[in-house]
C-alpha cells in the first residue's frame, strides 16, 4: 500500500538540507547526499521507489528506469503538475508549465524557433557575445578569474541578442529581477503553502515576488511596444523581426484565432527563455570549466580537437557538429552536475506503476541525481569524471535506456532549447580553448548548491594562461 511510509515533517527535511550544505565538501562529485539528503537516505532505507508526504499530498519517488520512462513519456497519463505559486511568477503559463492545447500551440512555435536552421542564424550572435567576453578576459591573463560570473554575463548577452535583438543592457534589468525571483523561489521550495491563506495574509516574499513580476511584465511590454512602433513606422506592418520576440509577436498578431498568442503568452515565453536559457547554459559551462581545470588531460584532448577542426578561425556550424570529444565532455558534465535535480509529474487517474497501484493526483518525483550517479547503471566509477563512457554516444553509454540520463528531461515535455544550450556551450568552449589554458585556482571552494539549478555557491575560480 502507498500509506506505509512514515510522515516526514518539513522542518526535518529543511534541517537535513541545511546541515548537509552548511560546509564545503572535498573535490568529489558525490553531490546527491549533499543536495537532497532526505531522498538519498530514504532510497537507502526504503529501496528504489517509495512514498513520502509533502504537506497534505502523497509523493511517489521513483528511480526505477522503466517506471521513470513511462511517467516521462506518457504525458497524457502523467501530466506536469500545476506550478507552485512562486514558480508561476517566474515562468508564468509558458511552455514549461502550460498544458494540453495551449502547450501544443506554444511547443509548435518553440520547435520552429529552435529548429536547426534558426539555430544556424543565431550562431553569429553567440560568437559575437563570446568575443566580447574574451575581450574582457585580456585583463585577467596570468591571473585568477571567476568563470561563473563571466558565463552569467555571456549567457544573458546571448539571450538578449537572440531573443530580443537588443544588447545585454536592455535585458539586464529583466535578468536582475528574474534572478531575485529565482532566489525567492528556492527559499520557499520546501515550504508547504496552505491553500487560500494568501487571500488574507501575504508574506514579505510574496509581496516582493509580486512587485518583481509586475516589473518584468512592464519591461517586456515596453520592448514589445517599441517593436510595434518600429513595424508601423517602417511601413512593414506585421514584420516584427526574425528573433524569438519577433516570432512571438507574429503569433500575437496571427489572423487565425486558434494560433494567436495573447500579450501575456508572449511575456510568459520570454520569461521562460530567459530563465531556462540562461540558468542551464551558465551552470553547464561553469561545471565544464571546473572539471577541465582539474582534468587538464581532457582539456588538452578537447583543445587538440578544436584546433584540428578550426585552427585559430572562428567556429562554424558544420565544424561544431563534428566536435566529438567536446560533446563527450559536455555529456559527462551533465551527468555529474545536471542543471535540474528533479522532475515532477501528476497521476491523472488511478494507475498501475510497477507493482504498485497509484491513486489519482499523487505526485511522482524523479530525482535526476539518483539515476545519474547510480553505480548499478554506470559502474563503480559512477562518481568519477570519465567522458570516455560517452565515446560511442548516449545510447551506448546508457545501454539503450534513455530514462537513466535526463539532463534535459525525456519525452514530449523534454527541453526544447536543448540544441540551443549545447550549441552555445560548444561555441564558448571552442573559442576559450583556442586562446587559453586554465587550471582550477587554489582559492576555489567546492560548495555545490541548488538555486533553481545546481551551481557553485562561491563561483568557479580558475587561473588563466594565454596560449
TrEMBL record:
Gene3D superfamilies: Cytochrome P450. The keyword Membrane applies. Its cofactor is heme. Pfam families: p450. GO terms for molecular function: heme binding; iron ion binding; monooxygenase activity; oxidoreductase activity, acting on paired donors, with incorporation or reduction of molecular oxygen. It comes from the Eukaryota. Keywords: Heme, Iron, Membrane, Metal-binding, Monooxygenase, Oxidoreductase, Transmembrane, Transmembrane helix. GO terms for cellular component: membrane. Its main location: membrane. Heme binds at residue 415. The keyword Transmembrane helix applies. It is found in: Membrane. Belongs to the cytochrome P450 family. PANTHER family: CYTOCHROME P450 CYP749A22-LIKE (PTHR24282:SF20), CYTOCHROME P450 FAMILY MEMBER (PTHR24282). This is Cytochrome P450 CYP749A48.
Amino acid at each position: 500500500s502507498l500509506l506505509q511510509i512514515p510522515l516526514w515533517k518539513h522542518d526535518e527535511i529543511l534541517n537535513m538540507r541545511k546541515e548537509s550544505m552548511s560546509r564545503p565538501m572535498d573535490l568529489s562529485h558525490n553531490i546527491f547526499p549533499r543536495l537532497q539528503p532526505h531522498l538519498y537516505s530514504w532510497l537507502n532505507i526504503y529501496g528504489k521507489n517509495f512514498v513520502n508526504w509533502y504537506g497534505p499530498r502523497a509523493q511517489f519517488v521513483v528511480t526505477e528506469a522503466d517506471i521513470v520512462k513511462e511517467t516521462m513519456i506518457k504525458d497524457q497519463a502523467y501530466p506536469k503538475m500545476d506550478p507552485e505559486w512562486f514558480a508561476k511568477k517566474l515562468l508564468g503559463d509558458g511552455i514549461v508549465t502550460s498544458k494540453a492545447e495551449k502547450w501544443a500551440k506554444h511547443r509548435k512555435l518553440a520547435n520552429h524557433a529552435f529548429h536547426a536552421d534558426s539555430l544556424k542564424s543565431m550562431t553569429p550572435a553567440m560568437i559575437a557575445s563570446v568575443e566580447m567576453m574574451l575581450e574582457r578576459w585580456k585583463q585577467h591573463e596570468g591571473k585568477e578569474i571567476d568563470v561563473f560570473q563571466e558565463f552569467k554575463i555571456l549567457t544573458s548577452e546571448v539571450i538578449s541578442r537572440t531573443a530580443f535583438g537588443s544588447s545585454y543592457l536592455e535585458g539586464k534589468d529583466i535578468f536582475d529581477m528574474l534572478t531575485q525571483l529565482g532566489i525567492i523561489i528556492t527559499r520557499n521550495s520546501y515550504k508547504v503553502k496552505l491553500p487560500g491563506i494568501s487571500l488574507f495574509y501575504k508574506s514579505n516574499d510574496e509581496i516582493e515576488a509580486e512587485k518583481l513580476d509586475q516589473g518584468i511584465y512592464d519591461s517586456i511590454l515596453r520592448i514589445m511596444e517599441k517593436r510595434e512602433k518600429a513595424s508601423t513606422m517602417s511601413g512593414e506592418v506585421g514584420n516584427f523581426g526574425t528573433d524569438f520576440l519577433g516570432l512571438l509577436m507574429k503569433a500575437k498578431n496571427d489572423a487565425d484565432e486558434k494560433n494567436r498568442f495573447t500579450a501575456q503568452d508572449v511575456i510568459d515565453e520570454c520569461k521562460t527563455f530567459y530563465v531556462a536559457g540562461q540558468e542551464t547554459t551558465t551552470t553547464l559551462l561553469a561545471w565544464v570549466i571546473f572539471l577541465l581545470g582539474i582534468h587538464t588531460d581532457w582539456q588538452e584532448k578537447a583543445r587538440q580537437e578544436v584546433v584540428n577542426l578550426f585552427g585559430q578561425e572562428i567556429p562554424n556550424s558544420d565544424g561544431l557538429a563534428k566536435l566529438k570529444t567536446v560533446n563527450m565532455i559536455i555529456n559527462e558534465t551533465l551527468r555529474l552536475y545536471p542543471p535540474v535535480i528533479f522532475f515532477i509529474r501528476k497521476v491523472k487517474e488511478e494507475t498501475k506503476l510497477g507493482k504498485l497501484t497509484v491513486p489519482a493526483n499523487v505526485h511522482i518525483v524523479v530525482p535526476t541525481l539518483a539515476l545519474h550517479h547510480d553505480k548499478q547503471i554506470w559502474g563503480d566509477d559512477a562518481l568519477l569524471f570519465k567522458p570516455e563512457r560517452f565515446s560511442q554516444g548516449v545510447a551506448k553509454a546508457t545501454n539503450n535506456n534513455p530514462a537513466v540520463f535526463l539532463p534535459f528531461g525525456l519525452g514530449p515535455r523534454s527541453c526544447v532549447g536543448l540544441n540551443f544550450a549545447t550549441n552555445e556551450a560548444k561555441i564558448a568552449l571552442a573559442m576559450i580553448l583556442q586562446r587559453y589554458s586554465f587550471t582550477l585556482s587554489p582559492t576555489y571552494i567546492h560548495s555545490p548548491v541548488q538555486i533553481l539549478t545546481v551551481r557553485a555557491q562561491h563561483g568557479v575560480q580558475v587561473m588563466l594562461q594565454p596560449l
